[in-house]
TrEMBL record:
This is Sialin. PANTHER family: SIALIN, SOLUTE CARRIER FAMILY 17. Coiled coil: none annotated. Keywords: Cell membrane, Cytoplasmic vesicle, Glycoprotein, Lysosome, Membrane, Symport, Synapse, Transmembrane, Transmembrane helix, Transport. It is a multi-pass membrane protein. The lineage of its organism: Eukaryota, Metazoa, Chordata, Craniata, Vertebrata. The chain crosses the membrane at residues 39-57, 139-158, 202-224, 229-248, 292-317, 329-347, 367-386, 393-413, 425-445.
Length: 507
């Protein structure tokens, strides 16, 4: 429910008034400590560039692979769809030399693209657990450093064969798998409750901008140099970022050398009674909690679409819409530019609704999640049935991906709302399930038979997402859309978030 600004919010059903619960009662002013030059926003900016590098390292192969594979191989396998006519002007190759080309068919390319996620899924939960024990700073830093170093060896691995490249990509996934849980664990100590949407949307928006820059830049590098430089340049950037990260950030406000006393007191006071002093992790009650599984469903559904586009959009642009490699990179990046903008704006909007208009946290999370789920699925499916209208296809893909940015202020940060002390572990659990679409998606989509109806087949993957949320809306089976019971975690006043009772976790 929304109340006009300036009024004290009355406790709603299941909510208990408590002066020590800033999230619910607004004990701290929305502006808190100054934003400019603050340690918490410096952390957000450095994290932004960290996830920028992270996704640049992840997606550069999607474009480079187009240049790595011998076009005669794809033609022999009948990969190129005849559904859309050739329309791009031939690109004049300006480079003096080309990288080695490989005879990889469509199925092999699918396994190469999907192999990253076989490593990525392994370190999700361990990453959250380790970050809670030792802090997220070094874990996140070394995770990205490891990925950057392995990226430098990609051309060598490709020369050794498909097996070596698959193993290398899986090792990169192992490094990246700890990063999001580690960042969530750090924000549990750094993000005041009424600034969570802003801070997390800023830091994680780097992933989208990294995609925006990496896709066209990789295409330009392939055009003017050769594909090997894609991996060399991005790998070096990752190493430079690591040096800055290790030098400038700290795990907690207490250990930060340059934070002001006022900001430190503001952060620590706003998180008072939010964090648990319990050392052991309540694994069994946690795994029995309905809110956790609600986030799992949302996370899985979102990634079903997100990872399909992330790994296969350049292939779609080339093989279906028939864009050349230069156009491919720029047009593949356009949807993620929209997503980046929506992430930043939705973070500001979500916290303003909660802090200035006293909109309940559960309402904000639900609405932003639904916008970020239903909207993308509808437009993505529609893109599969518009024929070869290139402008409309790109527009639908851009709108679809942009609307997904609303989820950054929805389920994506819900872990911090329901259990700040275990946020990294919770994200590790939900992201483990949410990685499955990344493993299966490239192989399934690459195996689709080109030809008549290819567009519809390519974009049929979001249908489970639409079905999931339509089911929630009509039958009330999803906890966050049906129940209105309060949530409880250790030493935290009741917080409405996804709508199921978590009191059993502390009993």
């Amino acid at each position: 429910m929304m109340r006009s600004p300036g009024r004290d919010p009355a406790p709603s059903d299941g909510e208990e008034a408590s002066d020590s619960t800033p999230l619910l009662q607004g004990a701290w002013p929305a502006e808190g400590a100054p934003v400019c030059c603050s340690a918490r926003y410096n952390l957000a900016v450095l994290a932004f560039f960290g996830f920028f590098v992270l996704y640049a390292l992840r997606v550069n192969l999607s474009v480079a692979l187009v240049d790595m594979v011998d076009s005669n191989t794809t033609s022999a396998d009948n990969v190129t769809s005849k559904e859309c006519a050739e329309h791009s002007a031939p690109v004049k190759i300006l480079r003096s030399q080309t990288g080695k080309r490989y005879q990889w068919d469509a199925e092999t390319q699918g396994w190469i693209l999907g192999s990253f996620f076989y490593g990525y899924i392994v370190t999700q939960v361990p990453g959250g657990y380790i970050a809670r024990k030792v802090g997220g700073k070094r874990l996140l830093g070394f995770g990205i450093l490891g990925t950057a170093v392995f990226t430098l060896f990609t051309p060598i691995a490709a020369d050794f064969g498909v097996g070596a490249l698959v193993v290398l990509r899986a090792l990169e996934g192992l490094g990246e798998g700890v990063t999001f849980p580690a960042m969530h664990a750090m924000w549990s100590s750094w993000a005041p409750p009424l600034e969570r949407s802003k801070l997390l949307s800023i830091s994680y928006a780097g992933a989208q901008l990294g995609t925006v820059v990496s896709l066209p830049l990789s295409g330009i590098i392939c055009l003017y140099m050769n594909w090997t430089y894609v991996f060399y340049l991005f790998g070096i950037v990752g190493i430079i970022w690591f040096i800055l990260w290790i030098s400038l950030v700290s795990d907690t406000p207490e250990t930060h050398m340059r934070i002001s006393q006022y900001e430190k007191e503001y952060i620590l006071s706003s998180l008072r009674n939010q964090l648990s002093s319990q050392k052991s992790v309540p694994w069994v009650p946690m795994l029995k909690s309905l809110p956790l599984w609600a986030i799992v469903v949302a996370h899985f559904s979102y990634n079903w679409t997100f990872y399909t586009l992330l790994t296969l959009l350049p292939t779609y642009m080339k093989e279906i819409l028939r864009f050349n490699i230069q156009e491919n990179g720029f047009l593949s990046a356009l949807p993620y530019l929209g997503c980046w903008l929506c992430m930043i704006l939705s973070g500001q909007a979500a916290d303003n609704l909660r802090a200035k208009w006293n909109v309940s946290t559960v309402c904000v999370r639900r609405v932003f999640t639904l916008i970020g789920m239903i909207g993308p699925a509808v437009f993505l499916v529609a893109a599969g049935f518009i024929g070869c209208d290139y402008s409309l296809a790109v527009a639908f893909l851009t709108i679809s991906t942009a609307l997904g940015g609303f989820c950054s202020s929805g389920f994506s940060i819900n872990h911090l709302d329901i259990a700040p002390s275990y946020a990294g572990i919770l994200l590790g659990i939900t992201n483990t399930f949410a990685t499955i679409p990344g493993m299966a998606g490239p192989v399934i989509a690459k195996s689709l038979t080109p030809g008549e109806g290819m567009l519809g087949k390519f974009f049929s993957k979001p249908m489970p997402q639409i079905w999931t949320h339509q089911k929630c809306l009509t039958s009330g089976t999803a906890p966050w859309l049906s129940s209105r019971a309060p949530l409880r975690w250790p030493k935290v006043s009741p917080v409405w978030i996804l709508g199921a009772d978590m009191a059993s976790l502390i009993r």
